[in-house]
Amino acid sequence: MRIAYAEPSRLGVDRFLALLAAHARGDGPWLLVSAGSALTVDLIDAGGRHRGGLIAPSPEHMRSALAARFPALAFAGGEAADFAGDTADALASGSIGAAAGLVERSHRKATRLLGMAPRVLLSGGGSQRLASALELDVELAPALVLEGLAVYAAHAAGSDS
C-alpha cells in the first residue's frame, strides 16, 4: 500500500490503520469514511494506492461551533428531517446533511477519478446516524481501525521471523 502524502508520517495513525484494513479486505477501490471526533474521508484505489483524503468537522462539532459563536443556536437534541419544523431539528438536519453531502460528493469525485465506484466503508461513533442520511450503499465497519491494527500486528510478527 502507498500513502498519497508526501510526508506519510503526517497521516493520522487511525486513518493509516483504516487504510490497511480496507486494503486487506481486498476487492477495492474503497472510500473510507470515519464519523468520529472528526469526519474523515480517504480513497484507496484497487491497486492499494491511497489517493488522499479530506478532514471536516463532525456533525457534533458543527453544532458546537454554531452554538459557541451564536448562543441562540445552543439547542440540544433534535431529529434530522428533510425540512425541519423547528430550530433543534434544523440544526440536527443541517449538520448531518452537510456531512452526508461531503461523503456523497467525495463518492462522485472518486468514481470519476477511478472510472468505477468505490465501495464505502463507514466507521466511527457517528456511523449509524450518518449511514441513515446517505443515499449510498455502505458497509458499516465499526472496528475498522482495530482490524487495521490486527493486520499491522500480523505483518510485524511475520517480519520478526
Tag the structure with descriptive keywords:
single chain, 161 residues, alpha/beta, Nucleotidyltransferase, domain 5, five-stranded mixed β-sheet, 5 helices, 47% helix, 17% strand
Number of strand segments? 5
State the fourth-level CATH superfamily. ATPase, nucleotide binding domain
The CATH topology comes to: Nucleotidyltransferase, domain 5
Reported CATH architecture: 2-Layer Sandwich
Biggest sheet character: 5 strands, mixed
Query: Percent of residues in beta strands?
Result: 15-25%
- Based on CA atoms alone, the radius of gyration comes out at 17 Å
Which overall shape is indicated by the principal axes computed on the Cα atoms?
A: elongated
Helix share, percent? 40-55%
| Strand neighbour order, sheet with most strands | 3-2-1-4-5
Structural class category = alpha/beta
Identify the CATH class. Alpha Beta
The number of distinct helices, counting runs of at least 4 residues, comes to: 5
Describe, in plain words, how this protein is organized in 3D.
The chain is of the alpha/beta class. The chain has a single domain, classed as 2-Layer Sandwich (Nucleotidyltransferase, domain 5), CATH 3.30.420. 47% of the residues lie in helices and 17% in strands. The protein has five helices and five strands, in the order αβββααβαβα. The chain has helices spanning 13-25, 59-69, 87-114, 127-133, 144-160; strands at residues 30-35, 38-44, 50-57, 119-123, 139-140. A five-stranded mixed beta sheet has the order 3-2-1-4-5, with helices on both faces. Strand 1 and strand 2 (38-44) form a beta hairpin. Helix 1 (13-25) packs across helix 5 (144-160). The longest helix has 28 residues, at 87-114.
